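Please check this protein record:
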Amino acid sequence: MVDKWYRLSVEVHRRYGGKFATVPKVPVTSMDDFAIYYSPGVAEVSRRIAENPDLAFELTSRWNVIAVISDGTRVLGLGNVGPEAAYAVMEGKALIFKYLGGVDAVPLPIRARDADKFIEVVKAVEPAFGGINLEDIESPKCFRLLDQLSKELKIPVWHDDQQGTATATLAGLINAAKLTGKDLKNSTIALIGAGASNIYTARLLMAYGVKPGNLILVDTKGILHPERDDIDRLMVENPWKYELALRTNAERRKGGIAEAMKGVDIVVAASRPGPGIIKKEWVAQMNKDPIVFALANPTPEIWPWEAKEAGAKIVATGRSDLPNQVNNSLVFPAVFRGLLDARAKTVTDEMLIAAAEELAKFVEGRMSEDYILPKMTEWEVYPREAAAVAAKASELGLARRPLSYREELNIAQEIIGKSVKTLEVLMDSGLIPK
């Protein structure tokens, strides 16, 4: 089946010459129009922006344009394939941004594997964009890039492998906890895998109110704790993992995955494809009505039916063909829609929590053990999520254009609806061949 999709993908990419194009958004009825859009009229626009750079978010397309930037060092499922090969993936991301969020995203793979050079390039292109989406970058470099660029740029910087996964995971856990009668903030949680997604998931869970000591992280060498043999090396090479080794695991557990899962309420695995990474007997040793998120792709760390047979009450994966998909695509188009409409200066964990809570709230009254998150086809969730983000950015004083929840809901519905309608019109007219 996978070979079929590979073959079709190559054929379709060749036929269409890629997935991305620029389309004018202003009417052109005669050559005189260019005196307004370009010379001489545009000179006055440039003069005003020179006096007040924030006017670029009102007088140019910058307010709705982001860069999808990658060095191609950790492309999902492929690893270090380089920037040229990464372009196809970044272009796909741009398509999802446009279709689900109405965001104009530009694929921008760069030949800058060194962290300092990468930061220099991104800082240099900042004036062209309203936001930056970092994508498919190796760990632990990705942590430094996100932290430093977030501090130094005056536009939101996002790393989907970190923030997108963490936000979707938190939303799913909020509803899973409700269904099982657990208090998420006081639950014990084993995080299997300590790469980009679970490092940020731990950070977001703590920001949400989960006790740091209740988190137990496991990497390829075992459970994180302050007495590990490699703790000094972690302090130098991966200070983000080092900090979690000090703050989490109040019981000072040692060992591997089995020891981390024993007697806990929840397991969130984002490690390597299974099955068999998590064993049924380990699930059976968790607390009553355990929650199991096995998020590795293309094959989860344990099959859902195996986890259920071992006693799991709720199981989620990263796959669309299984119940409860924890999908980044539920997050990043909507979060950026809200950030861009509010002309936000940055993105914070408080905004991510607002997005997660809105995502969770969307299925209230309808959720079940096999339905804890919306599906991508339920497009109504995207404007609501965008509204929650814009309202939170405004509340925190980080919006150049403060918006209420209701104001952004109307704006996002219009923009996303127009994006979907535009594609339909282009297809119906034959300008995009079906």
